[in-house]
Amino acid sequence: MVRTPLSPEERRRGERFGALLRRARGERSMVEVAAAAGVSAETLRKIETGRAPTPSFFTVAALAAALGVSLDALAAACAEPEGDDQALSA
Amino acid sequence: MVRTPLSPEERRRGERFGALLRRARGERSMVEVAAAAGVSAETLRKIETGRAPTPSFFTVAALAAALGVSLDALAAACAEPEGDDQALSA
DNA sequence: CATGACCCGTATATTAATACCGGTATAAGA
DNA sequence: TCTTATACCGGTATTAATATACGGGTCATG
Q1: How many CA atoms are closer than 13 Å to the CA of B44, on its beta-carbon side?
Q2: Stretch B21-27: mean pLDDT, rounded?
Q3: Chain B closest CA to A27's CA: distance in Å?
Q4: Which of A13, A57, A65 sits opposite B54 (nearest CB)?
Q5: What is the pLDDT of residue B89?
Q6: Which residue has the higher pLDDT, A1 or A24?
Q7: CA-to-CA distance for A40 and A83, rounded, in angstroms?
Q8: Which helix (H) or strand (E) holds B79?
Q9: Mutant choice from B46, B57, B63 vs A, greatest count of A C-beta within 10 A
Q10: pTM of the predicted protein model
Q11: Are B39 and B62 in contact (CB under 8 A)?
């Protein structure tokens, strides 16, 4: 076995994660946030839409910094499918 | 251009990051921490030795949880080459 | 000597990050 | 109304890199 494909659960976690980032982005545009984080807009879009379910740590860290959210809060929020309704909304 | 190879700076950042994790591991063995985080020992070793300079966010999150360190502290520590001497040593 | 812990090299399938092209929808302007 | 611009989404393509596994090597400790 060499790197088992991602499980549906992991993909769902990626979708939750992307939804969190998109919510944290608020009114700002993708290109604005992506530029602030130093990543391409395509990458941000992929992560937000869940098409990149397991993004790089430093990419996420840069995005979190640009969005002003905590990495620990992000990890905790997408680890718990329930109770993340108002998470990171501030 | 399709995914520029990692710059030497990014690789150095990976080495700093790995050193931080190794310091946070303390006396515990690699297999112990890797099992607790749900990743393979090879993966943990690669990250610690800097041979995996840009690990996945969720892999790092699982390791940080197993080590009891903060993701924000990790990101901040490896982003600043100076002043991380006693970081995460507690 | 044996065991445990770590390291290194190699191998492999899957994925990340980037880019380009086109499509859709909405809003502003002539 | 027609056009333009902005913003997002989808597919495809390409290289680099992850995550995993195996075999062997080293070094200390028992």
Answers
A1: 25
A2: 95
A3: 24
A4: A57
A5: 45
A6: A24
A7: 31
A8: helix B71-79
A9: B57
A10: 0.91
A11: yes
**A59–B57 CB contact, under 8 Å:** yes
Return d(Cα B72, Cα B64) in angstroms, integer. 10
* pLDDT of the residue at A8: 93
Q: Extract the tokens encoding A42.
A: 């395509």
> What CATH code is assigned to A8-79?
1.10.260.40
Shortest Cα–Cα distance, B27 to chain A (Å): 24
pLDDT of residue B90: 43
Nucleotides of D under 7 A from a protein CB: 6-11, 13-22
| Total residues belonging to chain A | 90
Q: Which residue of B has its CA nearest to A62?
A: B75
Helix (H) or strand (E) holding B61: helix B57-67
Q: How close is the nearest chain A Cα to the Cα of B46, in Å?
A: 15
Q: What is the pLDDT of residues A21-66, one digit of tens each?
A: 999 999 999 999 999 999 999 999 999 999 999 999 999 999 999 9
**Does B34 have pLDDT greater than 50?**
yes
Test A70 with B75 for CB contact under 8 angstroms: no
